[in-house]
Every structure is written in structure tokens, then in C-alpha cells.
TrEMBL record:
<dbReference type="Pfam" id="PF02517">
    <property type="entry name" value="Rce1-like"/>
</dbReference>
<keyword id="KW-0472">Membrane</keyword>
<dbReference type="GO" id="GO:0004175">
    <property type="term" value="F:endopeptidase activity"/>
</dbReference>
<dbReference type="GO" id="GO:0006508">
    <property type="term" value="P:proteolysis"/>
</dbReference>
<dbReference type="InterPro" id="IPR003675">
    <property type="entry name" value="Rce1/LyrA-like_dom"/>
</dbReference>
<feature type="transmembrane region" description="Helical">
    <location>
        <begin position="139"/>
        <end position="159"/>
    </location>
</feature>
<feature type="domain" description="CAAX prenyl protease 2/Lysostaphin resistance protein A-like">
    <location>
        <begin position="115"/>
        <end position="207"/>
    </location>
</feature>
<keyword id="KW-0378">Hydrolase</keyword>
<protein>
    <submittedName>
        <fullName>CPBP family intramembrane metalloprotease</fullName>
    </submittedName>
</protein>
<feature type="transmembrane region" description="Helical">
    <location>
        <begin position="212"/>
        <end position="230"/>
    </location>
</feature>
<keyword id="KW-0645">Protease</keyword>
<feature type="transmembrane region" description="Helical">
    <location>
        <begin position="57"/>
        <end position="73"/>
    </location>
</feature>
<feature type="transmembrane region" description="Helical">
    <location>
        <begin position="85"/>
        <end position="104"/>
    </location>
</feature>
<feature type="transmembrane region" description="Helical">
    <location>
        <begin position="171"/>
        <end position="191"/>
    </location>
</feature>
<dbReference type="GO" id="GO:0008237">
    <property type="term" value="F:metallopeptidase activity"/>
</dbReference>
<dbReference type="GO" id="GO:0080120">
    <property type="term" value="P:CAAX-box protein maturation"/>
</dbReference>
<keyword id="KW-0812">Transmembrane</keyword>
Length: 249
């Protein structure tokens, strides 16, 4: 006879010192990146009018993760379905090209600007998501799903204070905190299902771009279909697997 051995989530399995170091380095690097962005791409410059100038800020979580954790285990860039991941990533810039090709009233210059800005937003999200949904996601795997989302969400929220001055307004900060916690749960769920950083990069970028309706709804619908039909490939945590143990008599 065999029975399932009882397993519980072990908070002691988390290397909190390393996570704290990761968060501190992410904040320091992003703080420096915010000043770098202002120096290299000041308001009124060519870059400031065409791309997401906060790209240097996103280097914080990425570089901190590389320095502290060095590798990502169950998660990769394209995940368990590379073709799907690349397709999802391409949907936003393709949305603008489809809009222009199907009669949306936009000049060639405006189309170029929007495509360029969308691509730059994706680049920004690469740095941020590799840090929070790549390196940190793996570091928090021993935690329950909801706890993992709350912890990562609070760290992600705190990091924004380094460069997002609007958070000094209490009402806005509380609203933003709610959005961050919901976003952290959703993005963590997407990583768990797809094992792909590229997918969450696109999901994050959706909140920072302005593709016009109905094209934006078409992109969102396509992403939802691709995620719903994604073959189940759940990331297994150290405490998710229940082990069969011989029952003693």
C-alpha cells in the first residue's frame, strides 16, 4: 500500500537575503538609468518624440538578476512553444501595419513613429520582465501561488518609487498598487502556463501602447486564443510535487 506524503510550502526554502540584494541592485541601477535616460534622451530630442525613453530604467531588474541569480531555470525567452511566443510578441507592431493596410487614417510618418515606439516599449518590457517574471519568479517558486504574486507585486511596486514620481500622491499610489498586484498575479500565471518571458513582455506592453480600436481588440483576442489553447505545461514548484511513500505497518 502507498499513500501520498504530506508536503507543505516551506518559506525557509526562500533565499530572502539574495532576493533583497536583487531588489536593492534593481533599484540602484534603475535610479542611475533614469538619470541616464534624461541625459541621453532629453525632452524635445528626436529620441524623446519617437521611442520609450525609459529603456535604461528597465535595465535595473535585468542586470540585478544577472548579477545575483545568474540564470533562470524553468523559464526561458520563448518558453514551451517558441512559435506561439514569437507570434504573440509580433502582434503589437503587426497591428499597426494591418491598421495602415486596411484603411486606418494614418500618415506614413505617424505609422513609422507608432511602430518604432511600440518596438521600443517591447524592448523596455524585456528588461523589466526578465527581472520580475524571470529571475524573481524562479526565486519565489517555493511559495504558494497567491503569496508568490503578492511578494513579487510588492517588490515590483516598491521599485517603481525610484523613478515614478506620481507615486508620491497617496491616492494614485494606492490605485497603482492595486493594479500592480493584479498585474503580478496575471503575469505570473502566464509564465506558469507558457514558461515564456516573451509572452509576458507582450502582455505588459499592451498596457503601454495605444493601438486604436478595433485593431487593439483584435490583438487582445488573438492573444487570449493563443493562451487558452496553449498546451498545458505548468511549471512545477519544489513543493507542488507530492511524493509516493511506502506506508509502514
Amino acid at each position: 500500500m502507498t499513500s501520498l506524503a504530506h508536503s507543505s510550502y516551506d518559506f525557509r526554502a526562500i533565499d530572502w537575503k539574495r532576493i533583497g540584494l536583487f531588489w536593492l541592485l534593481a533599484c540602484l541601477i534603475s535610479w542611475g538609468g533614469s538619470y541616464m535616460a534624461g541625459a541621453l534622451m532629453p525632452a524635445g530630442s528626436w529620441a524623446a518624440s519617437r521611442i520609450d525613453t525609459s529603456i535604461p530604467v528597465s535595465l535595473g531588474p535585468l542586470l540585478a538578476g544577472l548579477l545575483v541569480f545568474r540564470r533562470v531555470g524553468p523559464v526561458s525567452w520563448a518558453g514551451s512553444q517558441p512559435l506561439r511566443s514569437w507570434l504573440i510578441l509580433a502582434l503589437l507592431p503587426l497591428g499597426w501595419l494591418v491598421a495602415a493596410g486596411t484603411g486606418y487614417d494614418i500618415t506614413t510618418d505617424a505609422l513609422t513613429r507608432n511602430v518604432l515606439f511600440t518596438v521600443s516599449v517591447l524592448v523596455y518590457c524585456v528588461g523589466e520582465e526578465w527581472g520580475w517574471r524571470g529571475f524573481l519568479y524562479e526565486a519565489l517558486l517555493p511559495l504558494p501561488v497567491m503569496t508568490r504574486s503578492v511578494v513579487s507585486g510588492l517588490l515590483w511596486f516598491g521599485w517603481h518609487f525610484v523613478f515614478y514620481k506620481d507615486l508620491l500622491n497617496l491616492n494614485f499610489a494606492l490605485t497603482f498598487l492595486g493594479m500592480i498586484l493584479i498585474g503580478a498575479y496575471g503575469l505570473n500565471a502566464a509564465v506558469t502556463r507558457t514558461r515564456s518571458v516573451a509572452v509576458v513582455v507582450c502582455l505588459h506592453a499592451l498596457t503601454k501602447t495605444s493601438l486604436p480600436a478595433p485593431y487593439s481588440w483584435a490583438v487582445i483576442g488573438a492573444i487570449i486564443v493563443l493562451l487558452i489553447t496553449w498546451p498545458s505545461n505548468r511549471v512545477t514548484t519544489p513543493v507542488d510535487a507530492e511524493t509516493l511513500v511506502p506506508e509502514e505497518h
